[in-house]
Specification:
The complex is a heterodimer of chains A (518) and B (122). The N and C termini of chain A lie far apart (152 Å). Chain A folds into four domains: 102 residues, PAS domain (Beta-Lactamase, 2-Layer Sandwich), CATH 3.30.450; 106 residues, PAS domain (Beta-Lactamase), CATH 3.30.450; 78 residues, Helix Hairpins (Orthogonal Bundle), CATH 1.10.287; 165 residues, Heat Shock Protein 90, CATH 3.30.565. Chain A contains 15 helices and 17 strands. In chain A, α9 runs antiparallel to α10 and α11 packs parallel to α12. Chain A has a five-stranded antiparallel sheet. In chain A, strands 7-6-10-9-8 form a five-stranded antiparallel sheet. In chain A, a hairpin with a 4-residue loop joins β6 and β7. With 518 residues, chain A is α+β, with helices and mostly antiparallel strands. Chain B has 122 residues and is of the alpha/beta class. Chain B has five helices and five strands. In chain B, strands 2-1-3-4-5 form a five-stranded parallel sheet, with helices on both faces. In chain B, α1 crosses α5 and α2 runs parallel beside α3. Chain B is globular, with a radius of gyration of 13 Å. The mean pLDDT of chain B is 88. Classes of the chains: A alpha+beta (518), B alpha/beta (122).
Chain lengths: 518, 122
Amino acid sequence: MVEEKEIDSVKKISTLLEDLLLLEKYIKDLFTFFPLPVCFVSPLGVIFEVNPAFEKFIGYTSYEVVGKPIENFFEKEKIETLTKDVLESGNIEARDMIISTKGGEKVDVSLFGQVRRNEQEETTGFFIGFFDLTKIKKTGKELQDTQVALLNMLEDIEESRKKAEEEKNKTEAIISNFTDGLLVFDDKRKVSLINPQAEKVFNINNKDVVGKSILELSVFPELELIVNLVGPEIKDISRKEIPFKGDLVLEISTIPILKGDGKIGSLIIVHDITREKMIEKTKTEFVSLAAHQLRTPLSAIKWTLRMLLDGDLGTITSEQRDFIEKTYVSNERMISLINDLLNVARIEEGRYLYKPASADMAPIVQFVINSYKDEYSRKKIKLDFKAPENPLPRVLIDVEKIKLAIQNFLDNSLKYTPVGGEVVVSLKSIKKEVQFSVKDTGVGIPKNQQERMFVKFFRAANVLTIDTEGSGLGLFITKNIIEAHNGRIWFESEEGKGTTFCFALPVKEEFTEFLEEF
Amino acid sequence: MPKKIILIEDEEILINVLSKKLIKEGYEVTIARNGLEGLESMRKEKPDLVLLDIVMPKMGGFEVMEEMNKDENLKDISVIIISNSGQPVELDRAKELGAKDWLIKTDFDPQEVVEKVKNNFK
């Protein structure tokens, strides 16, 4: 019986043992399967056991971890607090912590702890489990970043909009307060804006013209002239003067509005030059009249002196002759000064060129040289004219004015070349120009004064003492004459060695446009 | 028969100088001190040549020529302008009105004026 009992007991125990083994296996399986990292830690903070998820997460094998202090893997201070808390309160939840992996990575985790006690309710240690916060944080951070970026973008847009608005306001303020009239056209050549000045000048209203094409503007009588001037394509115009209603004179310019390589619109600028014109006219009339009035007594003096010199009023002594001759020369200088003033006045009146005609420069130059020959020989200056070997192409010129230009060059060479010097005049055809030059062995022009040579009334310092009668107008007049012919004028000079003055006139073919203006 | 010249000019010195020179050359000179006087003399004297100033009191040189062109008896008389001005537009207008020549006083000596007169009669 006893044996039977014993057998029963053994059976029971074995069954119990079997159950226990199964349970142990179950727990082990569960521990192994558990996808979150879990470890078991002694009350003193030494790791006893880790699950595969823990190994995987932290990168160390269980051999490297088990038996090591927990603070090797977690933040020291935080884990100490956590250990204390979990031992005192039994469990803790969702503590943020950073774990250092074997790979040196710092990973944000959320940590949970649970105390384990034996049957005697003695604490044997605690479990720690955690999950990776990085992904959650990352998503959160990304979201936050996106939001910040979005906000920044919105701010930028707002700022740009403000800036654009400010620019627009500024531009509009400039346009509407601009003293010149402005008409702004878009890329389709429709009016996008006109300012109050333009409204006033052309007697139109902003709202009546905005959106209208350039051609449609010709229905406004005051605008017709502008439309005809700029044409349907709004061609480039630079400071074109047009007489407007009444005494008004307008100066019209057009400017393309460019963006990159493309034209996105045009701007017509209307500048009222009535006052300038009036002042200019008054000044010119004054100079013209003054010069004219001055000539009358000068011609009286000239003729009287000439009569005295010619003996028409009786014989004169040689001393008297000497005085009268000197007075005659002075009077001649005065006459040429007045002539210069008259020429300047006419240049500035804008009607200086008169009836340009096709001409050969050679005989013209020869003619002027002939009239100077005596004076050169009187001063013992050798004059050499290098005439062109072949016939020159013809140029379109105002002959009298070109003669004056040649005269001015010769005058200067005569005045500023010392006795015994040499002057070489040459005339040749180069490319599409006829070039005229006068080279002398004169006093030259100081380098620091060269750029002012063509300025009205300017006279270089080194000639002021040589010749006190020069007006400082000769080169100014000459430059105006040459430029009115679409020509070029220049010089080369070295002080003490000499000067070469040159001008070049375009040959006739290139004059077609120029001709139309006359 | 000496050639008859009417000098229409308001500047006394120029009148003196020029008339003296011309008389010396054997011309018969009548003087008029403005355009109106000039026309009057022309109708009376029937001159061979008129020396005409442009800017004058009462009637200027251009108006004188216009009047001459309207008058059958005067329109064939030769006219030489002697003036202190000489702008291209003025020269052209004078040419249109039938002037033979244009002399700017400051640019010519009286003897040169006399030469021009002589040439006119050649």
